[in-house]
Each structure stands twice: as C-alpha cells, then as structure tokens.
Amino acid sequence: MIPVEKRLLIKVANMYYIENMKQSDIADKLGINRTTVSKYLKRAMEAGIVQISIVNDSYEKLEAELEKKFGLKEVYIVDSVADADQVKNNMGKAGLAFLKRVLNDGDVVGLAWGTAIGALAKSAVLEKCNEINADMVPLVGGPENIDNEFHVNTLVYKIANAFKAQSHYFYAPAISKTTEIRAAIMQDVNYTKISSYWDKLNVAVVGVGAPVKSSNLVWAGAFGKESIDELADAGVIGEICSVFYDINGQVVTTGLSDKIIAIDLEKLRRVKYSIGIAASPEKVPAIYGALKGKLINVLISDEETAKLLLTFNK
User: Fold this and answer.
1) What are the structural domains of the chain?
2) What helix, strand, coil percent values describe the chain, rounded to 5?
3) Selected residue with higher pLDDT from 227 and 2
4) According to the model, what pLDDT value does residue 211 have?
C-alpha cells in the first residue's frame, strides 16, 4: 500500500469508531474501496491513532490470580456485604449465569443441596433461561430435617424446570440411620438409576461445608455440635455432598462414612465443570481443600473469601 497521510487515517478512524459509519459507506464517501478502508483502520491501530481499552470488571485481577494459583477453569467473584443472605443471592445469580453460558443439549447436571444451591434455584425461578435438553439429578440424598425449600429434590425440580430440562429424584437420605439401611437403599432401583447418571456428569454444582457450628450437616441434624471436635481430630477440613475430606481434598473416613448416600467425590474430579459455590472466612480452609484436591474446578465466591484464599497457608 502506498504511504497514507496521518490525516486520512484519523478521518477514517473517526468515521468508523466515533460516527459508527459502515465501512462500505466510508468507502463510498472517500472514493475508495471497502478493502482499503479495512486496511486504513488496521494501519490506524498499528500507528496508535486508535487505542482500544477494555473496562475490566472490578474483580478481574483477583479472579485471574485465583485461577492461576489453583489451576481453575473459572472464578466468579461477587461483592462482599454484611448481609450473608445477600451474598448467597449474588452467588446464586452468578451460578445461574454460568450455567446459562455452559449448558448444552445432552448434558447431565448434578446438584447438591443447601442454601447456596437454594439461592441459585431461586434465581432460576425468577429469570428467563433457554430451553436445554438435559438431565438434572441429585448428587446426594436429601436430609429429612430441613425445609423442603432446600431439599435436593426440590432444587433439582426448580432448576430443571427453569431450563425445561428433565428432572430426576433421589428417594434416599443423605446419611442413613444404619449401615444396613444404606446397603438396602443401594440395591434399590432408584439408587441404581440416579447413580448411573453420576458416571455421565458434565456439570456438577455443589456447596462447600466446614466442620463448624453453622455447617449444613449440623443444621440438618445429621450430627450434633459435640461431634465437631471429633471431625477436627480426624483431620476433616471440609465437606461436599456430606462426604468429608482433609486439607488436600482427600476423603477422610469417619463414623458416618458407611452411612453416607452420595456420589463418590473422585467422580467430581473428572467432571468437565465442577462448580463450587461458597463464601465466608470460616469456610476458607474447606474451600482451599476442595480446590487443592481438584474437587471443584470452578469457584463462585465473594471478594473477602477470595482474598483470604490467596493468602491462606495450611
């Protein structure tokens, strides 16, 4: 191309980027062809006449640092506010936005239970979601002593219904009263059906629990507060789908292990998108363990928790 005076490059760039003119209209006005207009725009960029800047999300740097530190596919950070319920609602909206972006026809989606997943379900009910030909299943049995709103089957129904997907229900407790009951449930046709989907998971959405007084399992009545010290002594740092693990994300055998009715956490390591939704300073060690053990590869959390994760030392 022959040398082009700077004035012409500025003129073309101004017409295209500021006046929003089509390249074909610019060509007609200047008496040149459309290919030349495209070349002029490229030349203007190379000469620094046109400078494009991207307005970063306020947490883009923090998200990138966490993704790099733990080898994650994605981190989605929401604002930290004093109202814990509002944080959960914000994380629920973020989780729904992520699902709307990644879900495809033919996917098998597994869901855990609890307030974090409940917030996602709440958002799904309120927002418009594209129809997806997918199967949605529980990843764990449903504790009996919790509000129906947060029961795993309720959450599966709400989220599946929002996407017009197929929902499947699990008629089993998260933790059986005896090992004999667990063995009998695992022979049932319903367990066989649900567990067969666990081998085909494309997406899993789970909460991350910690062995503290506010944990889901204490809340649901699975064990009393006096058991918390016993879990800590056994090296338990966190819980996903009622299964306990240590600081490295390895499953810890406890007195409840042979009563738990849930997906094997090893399967989560093989899922394309294993999404963990959790926030709060007291959960940082549990989230760290889940990340370290690759139990989740997508994290949805808040700013305060994210910053603590970056500096956490086991």
Assistant:
1) 6-46 (1.10.10.60), 60-311 (3.40.50.1360)
2) 45, 15, 40
3) 227
4) 77
